[in-house]
């Protein structure tokens, strides 16, 4: 049985870089991956969706070019080319990471499905069909999450789509019904509407993006409705039935009333669940919560000594940059004797609808709940010179500031390149730059960033 110093299970956004750095630090390391190097982000998450969102944006621009004085006649969407481009980008990223791992001294990349025998031993069902046991002093679990499939009558009798299978559709759905109105539902909903599908989104809560402030949900709803996307809130599906015509009949319960909708495709986007059920964690003493997420402390140590958990598998904010940050925390604590913690770290994120929603820090709702003496700065994108010049004034900029200290507490930028503008405020928050300083800051004209002067001017008087 081969003995390692460290075994990393899962080559997600933490696992790959961590395995390389551990090996380079002198630890004999193995990285076990059951599918593809790069995990969800590279293979069926961020990378493929954002390449396809770019195609959807191109279709939107072509369809809306006339006001800018450009007539585009007869454009069409070529899903095969969109898929091909997406696959090329994914393969480029995946192969690049794999080569980097394979050429790292002291590191073995093993393709197979790992399960614990005890807290120092794993059994790997190799992709070649054989089984092998490996031992290590340290284990790092980075097995990510997968689509949660709700228990709804008839769902298993239709070929429903997930965020993975929808990436490889060979034709644009005639009518795509989406269950769930948050990141995945909204990014795919708008994308396929722009590719030519009729799109209906069913959201269980009383508004889409229900974790955000109400004005954000309202503005996004307006933006989606302007593209003829149907949104039902306080609604879920109660049964699915495949018709002889090939169509799917969906019984929905909308705000207490029942209604039937026909569609051709169904995308399930009601959340993701940690991939822990096949790890045999009961053999290790690693505790999980009621959702199967691994419990860790602020240094990402589990309840079993020598076993760490990083990324989506531990629950909490499920983003690539958070998983990557987990890796730096674990690595630097272990190898560089740092004393880093994930407590109170910033969690920025960007939803890649068009326009984007860039978010960091407190929302207005949270500031109110905490009883903070806050003020809200808000500027419609229709007042942003760059937005007017480039012909897209949808959305607004919003910042929550501390009325006493003048520090920025949070920001929501719903607008073109909203993620980039949000990041400027995120850095101001890290550096303790006050909103008054930003109000008088020199930004190059006419950038979106320049309007941060005006955003905070709104707080004067
Ligand atoms: C459609 C979609 C779009 C997204 N877009 C964004 C975005 O724009 N921005 C953003 O920040 N985040 C986005 N995310 C979330 C992001 O992809 C994840 O948060 C990120 O990939 C972090 O994952 P991870 O490192 O925890 O693990 P993952 O990347 O999920 O990797 C886990 C790896 O472990 C492997 N594995 C699992 N079990 C075993 C086992 N027993 N043995 C061996 N290997 C195993 C899996 O095959 C997988 O490769 C998106 C997610 C989805 C689904
Ligand atoms: N741009 C990004 O950063 C990005 C993009 C895609 C995904 N992600 C990550 O992927 C994760 C999963 O995203 P998601 O959108 O699937 O999940 P989510 O948990 O963020 O949202 C699920 C939505 O479905 C609704 N819902 C739940 N049950 C329902 C039902 N039965 N009927 C109708 N609606 C129902 C919920 O109210 C919620 O609005 C997120 O946590 C996110 O971190 C990030």
From TrEMBL:
Disulfide bonds join 41-46. FAD binds at residues 50, 312. NAD(+) binds at residues 180-187, 203, 271. InterPro entries: FAD/NAD-bd_sf, FAD/NAD-binding_dom, FAD/NAD-linked_Rdtase_dimer_sf, Pyr_nuc-diS_OxRdtase, Pyr_nucl-diS_OxRdtase_dimer. Binds 1 FAD per subunit. The active site is at 445 (proton acceptor). Its cofactor is FAD. Residues 4-323 form the FAD/NAD(P)-binding domain. It holds the Pfam family Pyr_redox_2. Belongs to the class-I pyridine nucleotide-disulfide oxidoreductase family. This is Pyruvate/2-oxoglutarate dehydrogenase complex dihydrolipoamide dehydrogenase (E3) component. It comes from the Bacteria. The keyword Acetylation does not apply. GO terms for molecular function: flavin adenine dinucleotide binding; NAD(P)H dehydrogenase (quinone) activity. It comes from Mucilaginibacter frigoritolerans. Residues 347-454 form the Pyridine nucleotide-disulphide oxidoreductase dimerisation domain. Keywords: FAD, Flavoprotein, NAD, Nucleotide-binding, Oxidoreductase, Pyruvate.
């Amino acid at each position: 049985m081969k003995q390692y110093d460290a075994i990393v299970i899962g080559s997600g956004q933490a696992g790959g870089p961590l395995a390389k750095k551990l090996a380079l630090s002198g630890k004999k390391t193995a990285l076990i991956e059951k599918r593809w190097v790069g995990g969800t982000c590279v293979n069926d998450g961020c990378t493929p969706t954002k390449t396809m969102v770019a195609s959807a944006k191109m279709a939107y621009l072509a369809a809306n070019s006339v006001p800018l004085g450009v007539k585009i006649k007869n454009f069409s969407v070529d899903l095969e080319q969109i898929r091909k481009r997406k696959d090329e980008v994914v393969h480029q990223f995946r192969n690049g990471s794999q080569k980097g791992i394979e050429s790292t001294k002291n590191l073995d990349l093993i393709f197979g499905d790992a399960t614990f025998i005890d807290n120092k031993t794993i059994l790997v069902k190799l992709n070649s069909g054989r089984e092998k046991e490996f031992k290590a002093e340290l284990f790092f679990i980075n097995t990510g999450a997968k689509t949660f499939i709700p228990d709804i009558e008839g769902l298993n009798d239709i070929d429903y789509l997930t965020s993975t299978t929808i990436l490889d559709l060979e034709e644009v759905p005639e009518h795509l019904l989406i269950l769930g109105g948050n990141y995945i539902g909204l990014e795919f909903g708008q994308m396929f509407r722009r590719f030519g599908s009729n799109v209906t989104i069913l959201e269980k809560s009383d508004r889409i993006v229900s974790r955000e402030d109400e004005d954000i949900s309202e503005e996004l709803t307006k933006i989606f409705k302007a593209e003829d996307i149907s949104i039902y809130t306080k609604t879920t599906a109660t049964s699915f039935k495949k018709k002889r015509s090939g169509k799917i009949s969906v019984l929905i319960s909308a705000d207490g009333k029942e209604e039937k909708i026909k569609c051709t495709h169904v995308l399930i986007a009601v959340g993701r669940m940690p991939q822990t059920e096949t790890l045999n964690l009961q053999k290790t003493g690693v505790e999980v919560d009621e959702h199967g997420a691994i419990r860790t402390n602020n240094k990402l140590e589990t309840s079993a000594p020598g076993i760490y958990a990083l990324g989506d598998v531990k629950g909490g904010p499920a983003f690539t940059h958070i998983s990557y940050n987990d890796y730096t925390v674990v690595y630097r604590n272990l190898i560089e004797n740092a004393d880093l913690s994930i407590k109170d770290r910033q969690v920025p994120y960007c939803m890649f609808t068009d326009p984007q929603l860039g978010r960091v820090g407190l929302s207005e709702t949270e500031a109110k709940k905490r009883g903070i003496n806050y003020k809200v700065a808000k500027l419609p994108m229709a007042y942003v010179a760059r937005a007017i010049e480039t012909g897209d004034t949808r959305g607004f900029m919003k910042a929550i500031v501390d009325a006493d200290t003048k520090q920025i507490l949070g920001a929501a930028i719903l607008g073109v390149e909203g993620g980039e503008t949000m990041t400027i405020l995120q850095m101001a928050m890290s550096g303790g730059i006050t909103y008054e300083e930003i109000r008088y800051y020199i930004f190059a004209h006419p950038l979106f960033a320049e309007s941060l002067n005006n955003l905070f001017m709104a707080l004067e008087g």
